[in-house]
Amino acid sequence: MKPAVELIDVNMVFKNREVLRNLNLTIPEGQRMAVTGPSGAGKSTILKLIAGLVIPTSGLVIRHTCRTGYVFQEPRLLPWNTALENVTLPLIARGEKRLNARKTGITCLADMGLSGFEHSYPDQLSGGMKQRVSIARALAIEPDLLLLDEPFTGLDPALRESICQHLEQALSKKVATVIHVTHDVDAMIHTANTLYTLTTPDTLVQLPLAG
Ligand code: ADP
Question: Is residue 154 scored above 80 in pLDDT?
Fold first, then answer.
C-alpha cells in the first residue's frame, strides 16, 4: 500500500513545551485512523503538521495526497460569505466553474441537512449548523485526505449520528485517507479502521479496534 502521509523523526516544541518527540508514522493510502489521548497531548498539532499549517521544529512531514479537507473543532467560516459561498470558495479557488461549484455546494449542504440555508450568513446559523457547513466545505472538494479535529462536538446525538452516516457514505465512494482526532467512540466506529492513542510526547501507539 502506498503511503499517503509520512512523518519522519518529527519533533515539535512550542516555546519551551515539548509536544512531540521523534514521531515516526507512515499512514497508508486509504487508512482511516482515529487518534485519541488526553487534552493537550498534541493530537491537533499532528493534524496541523500534516496540513502544513505548522512547521515541525525538526523532522520531515511528507504528504503524497492532492486534496486536503480539514474540519476544525470550530467552524472557521468566512462571516461575510453565505453558507453556499463558504462551501464553493475552495472549489472555485481550485479552478472549478462557478455553476458546477454551485451545484456541488448545494448537494453537499443538502447532505448535511441544510437545504434552504444556502443563502444564510454564518451569524444567522446555530453553532451546529455552522459546523455542518464546515463539514460540507471539507467534503465538497472530494478530499483524498480528510483531517477531522473533533468535528462533531456541539452536535446533538441524533444529528451527529446522521452526519456520521453521511460521512461514512461519502468516504465509501472513493479511497480517502482519514485522520480523525476524537474522544467520541460512536463517531470513531463510523470513520476509523485503526485506532491510535497519543499520551506523552513520544508515545503514539496503535490500539486494537474492537469489531
Ligand atoms: P490536543 O489536540 O491533544 O488537545 P494540541 O495539539 O492542541 O493538543 O496542543 C498540544 C500542546 O501544544 C498544548 O499544550 C498547547 O497549549 C500547545 N500548543 C499548541 N499550539 C500551540 C501554539 N501555536 N503555540 C504555543 N503552544 C501551542
Answer: no
DSSP 36: E
pTM for the model stands at: 0.93
Residue 47 Cα: closest atom of ligand 1: 6
Amino acid found at 210: A
In the prediction, which pLDDT does 211 show?
53
* Ligand 1 neighbourhood includes 180 CB (under 6 angstroms): no
Indicate the domain borders of the chain.
1-67+143-211, 76-142
- Please, which pLDDT band fits residue 210 given cuts at 50, 70 and 90? low
Q: Write phi, then psi, for 29 (nearest 5 degrees).
A: -55, 130
Which amino acid would we find at residue 114? L
Phi, psi for 87 (deg, rounded to 5): -75, -35
Ligand 1 centroid vs 56 CA: distance in angstroms? Answer: 13
Please give the distance, rounded to the nearest whole angstrom, from the Cα atom of residue 66 to the centre of ligand 1: 26
Architecture of domain 1-67+143-211: 3-Layer(aba) Sandwich (3.40)
Q: Which atom of ligand 1 is nearest to the CA of 181?
A: 2
